[in-house]
Amino acid sequence: MAVTIKSEREIELMREAGRLLAKTHEELEKSLHAGMTTKEIDRICEEIIRSYGCIPSFLNYNGFPASVCVSVNDEVVHGIPSSARVIHEGDIVSLDTGLIYKGYQSDAARTYGVGEISKEAAQLIEVTKQSFFEGIKYARAGNHLNDIGTAIQKYCEQFGYGVVRDLVGHGIGTEMHESPEIPNFDMGRKGIRLRAGMTLAIEPMVNMGRYDVAWCDDDWTVVTEDGSLSAHYENTILITDGDPEILSL
Ligand code: MG
């Protein structure tokens, strides 16, 4: 599938989708606390998204049963909310969610520490977030796709972290997952040339240990193979002729 270039009208809709998704994350952060279940987070998330007149894009996507992926500690992504899973003080919790506004999608993820977390865990969260910003320095018309992932990988590996290989970012628009796939690492070839009007979900997934991951029996939850902590940070961005515009922040 070709990479879509959005019209000015489509970009306006994606700006609004992104703005509402940023607000969703702000509300979710406020509600996150030790003692709640991951199912409660999902209930709150769906309520917020619907209160904006939007559709939770994750719900029923390929059969995913919730509006938000809640991935705790060594869970990398795609954790399924559960009434049996309680958030504890000291956990790190990744919340990945998306919404549809008038047919246009936005996708974003954040990782938070709950209560007091270790210095090491706090650094992992901070470096993962910063790696997104290091990557998007290269997200400009005329550059190539691989410039983004290479910058993300370089930044994270300075800290001895493993950048997940088996999952990648993606184009986004009327579909949650559009072309191209966007690795967070050097894929060894330049990839497509970036053009103004492309909208992309850039989402580094970073492990404190090795980059290898495994899938749980639920066929969704991805965990680090070595049991180390993992963090995730994502925004939907717009490529322009100048600096990229972060739509979901
Ligand atoms: Mg995504």
The fraction of residues assigned to DSSP E strands is 15-25%
State the order of secondary-structure elements, H for helix, E for strand.
HHEEEEEHHEEEEEEEEEE
Strand order of the largest sheet: 8-7-9-14-15
Bound molecules: magnesium ion
Q: State the total count of DSSP E strands.
A: 15
| Radius of gyration, whole Å | 17 Å
End-to-end distance: 28 Å
Describe the fold and architecture.
- It is a single chain.
- The protein has 4 helices and 15 strands.
- It has helices at residues 8-31, 38-51, 119-136, 145-157, and strands at 55-56, 68-72, 75-77, 92-101, 104-113, 162-163, 169-171, 178-182, 199-202, 205-207, 213-215, 222-224, 230-232, 235-238, 245-246.
- The strands form 4 sheets. Strands 8-7-9-14-15 form a 5-stranded antiparallel beta sheet.
- The longest helix is centred in the first third of the chain and has 24 residues, at 8-31.
- The two termini are 28 Å apart.
- The relative contact order is 0.19.
- Bound molecules: magnesium ion.
- Magnesium ion (MG) binds at residues 107, 170, 201, 203, 234.
Short description:
It contains four helices and 15 strands. By secondary structure, it is of the alpha+beta class.
SSE layout and pairing:
Layout (H helix, E strand, L loop, with lengths): L7 H24 L6 H14 L3 E2 L11 E5 L2 E3 L14 E10 L2 E10 L5 H18 L8 H13 L4 E2 L5 E3 L6 E5 L16 E4 L2 E3 L5 E3 L6 E3 L5 E3 L2 E4 L6 E2 L3
Antiparallel strand pairs: 1-4, 2-4, 3-12, 4-5, 6-10, 7-8, 7-9, 9-14, 10-13, 11-12, 14-15
Helix pairs in contact: 1-2, 3-4
Magnesium ion binds next to loops.
